[in-house]
Amino acid sequence: MKFTLDRFVNAPADVTFETFSDFENSPEYIEAIERLEMLTDQPVGVGTKFRETRTMFGKEATEEFEVIEFDRPRRYVLRSYSCGAEYLCEFEFAEDGGGSRATSTVSTQAQTFFAKLFSPIGVLMSGTMKRLIAKDLADGAAAAEAKANPPEETDEVRT
Q: Pfam families recorded for this chain (predicted)?
């Protein structure tokens, strides 16, 4: 299974990249993430690992991710193994007019006999997965836009 989603973000690509790749703080702005634990003590880059717990399909699910590609401020790729399958989540960021475009490609490759046997169920769940990733993109975009366009301070006193 493989699908790609993208979203316009009213923020420069470098701000969008930095927001999306700030894994440690992602529970603050990605609604579905319940908690995140960094497993490596290093600046974010190739080899960074973290454990993410989120609500999926009405249940709490915890997955471990590793950054396997990191090209600031254009692209990063996360890999996870779960239920006998390899999951790759590619994120790309490009300037787009007055803002940027965030693109996410998710692919799944069954690795075990049982994962291959049950792969048709994955196809049935792809619509739900697309909605979850679209919501993550929207949440990340909102956070990047807030960083790039902070509210203006005013000296005006309201009563």
A: Polyketide_cyc2 (PF10604)
Within 10 A of 152 (CB to CB), how many other CB atoms are there?
Answer: 5
Asked whether 36 and 27 are in contact (CB, 8 A), the reply is yes
At 156 the pLDDT is 60
Mean pLDDT of the chain: 87
Please give the span between the terminal C-alpha atoms of the chain, in angstroms, as a whole number.
57
Q: Where are the alpha helices (DSSP H) in the chain?
A: 13-20, 113-117, 119-124, 126-148
- Give the whole-angstrom CA distance, residue 99 versus residue 122: 34
Per CATH, which fold does 2-148 belong to? Alpha-D-Glucose-1,6-Bisphosphate; Chain A, domain 4 (3.30.530)
Please list, in sequence order, all residues whose beta carbon lies within 8 angstroms of the beta carbon of residue 98, skipping any fewer than 6 positions away. 10
d(CA 102, CA 110): 27
Write the pLDDT tens digit of every residue in 50-80. Answer: 999 998 777 898 999 999 999 999 999 999 9
